[in-house]
Amino acid sequence: MIIQPKQRNIAYRCPECASSIFGIVGKFALSADMLRLKCSCDKGSALDINKTNDGKIRLSVPCLFCKQNHSYVVSESVFFDRDKFLLNCPYTGMDIAFIGDEQTVNSELARTEEEIRRLMAGFEAEDISELQPEDMNEDEILPDPAVYDTLRFLVKDLEAEGKLECLCNEGSYELRFCDGGVQVYCERCGATYTFGATTPALAEEYLNIDYLKLK
Ligand SMILES: [Zn+2]
Ligand SMILES: [Zn+2]
Ligand SMILES: [Zn+2]
Questions:
Q1: How far apart are CA 96 and CA 126, in angstroms?
Q2: CA 171, CA 102: separation in Å to the nearest integer?
Q3: Is residue 77 included in any domain, yes or no?
Q4: Is residue 140 over pLDDT 50?
Q5: Which residues surround the ion ligand 1 when the cut-off is CB under 5 Å?
Q6: pLDDT value for 4
Q7: In a domain, 2, yes or no
Q8: Are residues 115 and 17 in the same domain?
Q9: For residue 66, what are the domain limits?
């Protein structure tokens, strides 16, 4: 008998004080309200989770690296049924939210702690704030996050249905902004596919594809 997990542990790092914030998301609690995970520091960053009208899950996650929230939409099955689900910053590629059972979330936090330490060492930074932007205006500097959001949803959906293939077929897939659009890549074999989408309307045109092969 398969027992469906009805709740998930989730964690993120507060961009203001760098501490890890933990929460538990229950399937039923989520259908009623917006859930908010909040850091208890002065600045009080918050991760918000709510259900969209069409039954998907929307997350707004504080980013340790950009000092702003990124938004993601995932299907309920991906959120609750995956052993491990990570949300990454579209600008730096670093993982910023960790979803899974308690053990998975803790081991991902430990893994990324190490990654952050290496990143800081690379920049000779003593504090994470040295890597964060001073004052960033998303509209001026960054590509439209709605483009990323749409394509991320598509990729995670194709992946969940086994309709996304790469050279190794054993990888996990992430997305990043690139010149002229958004690129999906396999973390294991490095195969890629580039969506030539720079506006939400162009991104939506990809939503009707039902198979994708990364090369
Ligand atoms: Zn904080
Ligand atoms: Zn970010
Ligand atoms: Zn691969």
A1: 20
A2: 23
A3: yes
A4: no
A5: 14, 16-17, 39, 41
A6: 55
A7: no
A8: yes
A9: 7-130
Is 22 in contact with 105 (CB distance < 8 Å)?
yes
Q: What's the CA gap between 92 and 41, in Å, rounded?
A: 25
The mean pLDDT value of the chain amounts to 87
Residue where a domain terminates, one of 130, 164, 198: 130
* Whether residue 113 sits in one domain with residue 170: no
- CA 99/CA 106 separation, integer angstroms: 10
Q: Which ligand is nearest to the CA of 165?
A: 3
Co-location of 14 and 90 in the same domain: yes
Q: Which residues surround ligand 2, an ion (CB under 5 A)?
A: 63, 65-66, 89, 91
d(CA 127, ligand 1 centre) in Å: 14
Q: Considering 97, 130, 163, which residue would you say is the last residue of a domain? A: 130
